[in-house]
Amino acid sequence: MDLPEEILAHIFSFLHLQDKCNAFTVCKAWSNIMTHPSSWKDTEVRCESGTSVPDGYSVFLPLVRNLKLTMGLIDPANRKTALWVLRQAVARGDGRLEGLSICCEGNTPLFYAGQDLQQGLVDILTNGSSLTMLDLKGVPFTLSDSFVRSVAMLCPALLSLYINNHSLVCGVNAETLRQVLKCCRSLNVLGVFQASLSQDVFKDLMLPERPALKKLELRCERSLKYTLPLCDQIWVELKLRHPHLWVELELDHTLPELHFSGALQPSIPVRCLRLLTFTLLLDEVRIVGQSYANTLEVLELQTTASSELNSALIALAEQCVKLQEFHCYCVVSQEVITAFITNCPNLKRYTLKTRKEPHPWTCTKLK
């Protein structure tokens, strides 16, 4: 009770909606603090079966600056509630809502393609030009070209856009991505399928009037086999134009092994790499050590155990000394663990096991 009100309001801002409502009822002092706009700056609303926004609290939704909507897709009522919450959050139209993240949990209904959510978002974001961050990585359905184009036109102030979700296929082509860059001229953080990239997209990113590109998240999956591979030289040119750019790269299990090398071009400034292929990755581990030793900080592998892999990982530990996290979801030797602890002084977390454990495997924290 001795904490200043502004400190308590900041703490309360990290609570999701139901916990904020509970905090209202603790005492008069907390109730007064919960009416402060800072308490609602960051808010998560969970739209699950049988839940709704408690009466009397919807008036605070327009105070939210960064909104995370988490919903189950099985019940259509959850989707309706989520859209209603978003509509309340932008009700004032005074440019308060800046960030929107949508995450779907549970099983996806058979043949559900997300048309109601995509159309609902477009209808509501007609007044959403204040958005500077939109994160759709948590939706399981394919995002259409028309939806992404509409979002870009409605939200020209976007600085960060993530459309690299875990749908089965990429639904956004290169021309749509070029339209996004044309509408959102200040965009400096972008998460997309690598299949959406093209030589022309890279040329647009390198235009002199564009701001510095800070981060690029790329998801590589089966759609990549239908596109022309990007040459390494285009990455060299992109790095020259954006010297502080860093890339987060994910190879999905649906990506054919034949296309692994094309996705792992040596000049990509990879800081975070996830090889979630469930295949033998001996050649890929060697490529990582040779190409990304100066930039790589986070590495995750889904592969098969072998003595050859142990040798490759020990060599990798000696090369990628900047690693801060390393997670390998197969059994390794004790020598591998020792190599990473010894050679990577910045290592903070790792998942390395000498014997199988029940799922999920827990990571070890060093710092």
Structure commentary:
The protein is an alpha/beta fold. The protein has 13 helices and 13 strands. The protein has a 13-stranded mixed beta sheet with strand order 1-2-3-4-5-6-7-8-9-10-11-12-13, covered by helices on one side. Helix 7 (174-183) packs parallel to helix 8 (199-205) and helix 11 runs parallel beside helix 12 (307-319). The radius of gyration is 23 Å and the shape is globular. It starts with a helix and ends with a strand. 33% of the residues are buried. The mean pLDDT is 90.
* Total of DSSP H or I helical runs spanning 4+ residues: 13
Shape descriptor reads globular
Write down how many β-strands occur, each being a DSSP E stretch of 2 or more residues. Answer: 13
Order of helices and strands: HHHEEHEHEHEHEHEHEHEHEHEHEE
CA-CA gap between termini: 31 Å
Quickly give the structural class.
Answer: alpha/beta
Low-pLDDT residue spans: none
Could you name the key traits of this structure?
367 residues; alpha/beta; 13 helices; 13 strands; 19% strand; globular
Produce the secondary structure layout.
Elements: H1 5-12, H2 17-24, H3 28-33, E1 42-47, E2 66-72, H4 76-89, E3 99-105, H5 115-124, E4 133-138, H6 145-154, E5 160-162, H7 174-183, E6 189-193, H8 199-205, E7 215-220, H9 232-241, E8 246-251, H10 260-263, E9 270-275, H11 282-291, E10 298-301, H12 307-319, E11 325-331, H13 334-343, E12 349-353, E13 364-365
Parallel strand pairs: 1-2, 2-3, 3-4, 4-5, 5-6, 6-7, 7-8, 8-9, 9-10, 10-11, 11-12
Antiparallel strand pairs: 12-13
Helix pairs in contact: 4-5, 5-6, 6-7, 7-8, 11-12, 12-13
